What we know:
This protein is an alpha/beta fold. Helix content is 48%, strand content 10%. The longest helix has 21 residues, at 41-61. The radius of gyration is 18 Å and the shape is globular.
Amino acid sequence: MQIGSEVGVVLFDLDGTLVDHDAAARAGAVHLATKLGLPSPQEQWRRWAEIERRWFLEFERGTVTHTGQRIRRCREFLGDDQLDDATALRIYDVYVEAYRAAWRTYPDAADALERAAASGREVGILTNGATEMQARKLSATGLDFDGLRLLAATDLGAAKPNPRAYAAAEARLGVAGPGSMLLIGDDWHNDVAAARLAGWQAIYLVREGIAPHRAMPQEETPVASLSQIEF
């Protein structure tokens, strides 16, 4: 897939696009369940993943803060609605300990960033994650290339798919209009459909062996690897 010359800025989603979030989250959930003495720690991962998806969607909708969705995930995982915020966040830190240790990039990630930068375009990350977490993730995985722009929802004041997130990204980058923007990601709604509604170009990534997060139109042709994109 060839990128047009009109594209001046290439943004990548981070989790699920450049970094294998699901594998790291599984390691974190199993570690947390083990520490808490829950039965069948390996099986607890599926429950954690479902709770994570549900509460992160509430964050994307703007009904809870980023910190708030972490607290609510831990409360639901433990089945304790009365769990105080501080205790919930300490429990979340137990999860994060193993989650961070398991961060790994996809094999095509670094090369894609390097090729995008070599094309002379501005390159960055547009993520719904928290700034501190995502900056550490880029550093730990070796993806923090010089000049790479990190645009995180907690700094932008809105998360994908809120139109304000794309407008805020344009403002941070000093882009006069959306026509030169390209977003590459694995979430059909956040990284493709909503980006296009904002006037951006978008490429949908569906990695082999990984089920799409959301249904896509039949006429859409996704890429299975970042190596298929020519910058």
